[in-house]
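Priority: medium. Attachment 1 of 2:
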């Protein structure tokens, strides 16, 4: 790109907002011009706003330290300063949905990390390697919103990133039923060990709202566009359990799946190893060169060893074997704040830029 697009980070002081800031520090296409958060952080420097709560394992980038944090609800002012925004603000769903729509109506596209708009029928839920074509629903959304360039696109829940891509690679065999138990890092709750003492020497068998999202969002990703809306796929039937475990980053999943047409084990591994994303995705700055990786070792993937595969943007699988109830079972892993959150958002923005949906004002 000859000229970088100007971007804002809404919710810049939280864990995902911090991750966005780090990923965008030297991005070749995007330049952060606005950091915004709640009124409590507005009007002070970013360094002051995240003092004692910087959660990344790298130092706060110098370029952000003296930027004055904006009030996220100053939509018109921020819209005049950016070409589009990433949204990772922590509000209830109703207020998040309204805020994101306000930005869109001010002709400022929103790439959202939030769940508030995921169920809206003309809002694409994107994993670019899988359903990038859903971006065309944006034209229907703009008609509904009455906008020329403003829209909302979201990335899916972090818990599905580990098992939807490997299942998608096998979609020709028509998966019918899926059981997925996810073992999710504390960063999925925006916390560190210091902020989450209850997780030490413990496992918490409940994450509010996570199982509903994990069971429903894949069906939208695998859905079809009909009459100006995304119609969810009817199959597979998915059931999940989502469990919080004492690790910093990385969501591991134990997956069981049955197919209408059962493939061989060798065929599954072949499809995983040879999966290739569309060319437009492969050429994006944040795209993994090899999206899916299968480990032959019996004790892999491991969260600590493998979550950073392909800079945290790839998916790892292992332990594929036949099952007594389902056809197959396997283990898979994704990095929840990279592929599952900020990194997935940045990749979606790159994809939408390459396809002409994100442009300079």
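Attachment 2 of 2:
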């Amino acid at each position: 790109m000859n000229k970088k697009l100007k971007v804002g980070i809404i919710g810049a002081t939280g864990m995902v907002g911090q991750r966005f800031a780090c990923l965008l520090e030297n991005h070749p296409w995007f330049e952060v011009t606005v950091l915004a958060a709640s009124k409590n952080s507005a009007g002070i420097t970013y360094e002051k706003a995240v003092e004692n709560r910087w959660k990344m394992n790298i130092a706060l980038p110098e370029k952000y330290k003296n930027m004055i944090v904006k009030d996220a609800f100053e939509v018109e002012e921020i819209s005049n300063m950016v070409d589009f925004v990433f949204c990772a603000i922590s509000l209830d769903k109703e207020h998040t949905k309204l805020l994101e729509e306000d930005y869109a109506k001010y002709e400022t596209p929103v790439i959202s990390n939030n769940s508030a708009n995921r169920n809206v029928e003309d809002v694409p839920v994107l994993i670019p390697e899988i359903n990038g074509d859903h971006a065309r629903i944006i034209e229907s959304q703009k008609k509904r919103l009455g906008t020329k360039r403003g829209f909302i696109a979201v990335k899916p829940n972090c818990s599905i990133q580990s098992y939807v891509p490997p299942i998608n690679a096998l979609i020709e065999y028509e998966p019918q039923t899926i059981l997925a138990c996810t073992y999710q890092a504390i960063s999925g709750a925006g916390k560190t060990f210091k902020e989450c003492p209850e997780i030490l020497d413990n496992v918490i068998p409940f994450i509010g709202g996570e199982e509903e999202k994990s069971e429903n969002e894949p069906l939208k990703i695998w859905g079809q566009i009909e009459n100006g809306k995304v119609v969810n796929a009817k199959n597979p039937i998915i059931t999940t359990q989502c469990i919080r475990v004492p690790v910093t980053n990385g969501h591991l999943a134990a997956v069981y799946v049955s197919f209408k047409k059962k493939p061989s084990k060798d065929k599954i591994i072949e499809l995983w190893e040879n999966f290739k994303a569309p060319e437009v995705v492969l050429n994006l700055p944040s795209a993994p060169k090899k999206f899916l990786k299968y480990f032959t070792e019996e004790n892999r993937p491991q969260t600590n060893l493998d979550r950073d595969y392909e800079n945290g943007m790839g998916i790892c699988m292992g332990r594929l074997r036949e099952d007594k109830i389902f056809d197959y079972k396997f283990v898979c892993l994704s990095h929840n704040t990279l592929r599952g959150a900020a990194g997935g958002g940045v990749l979606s923005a790159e994809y939408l830029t390459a396809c002409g949906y994100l442009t300079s004002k």
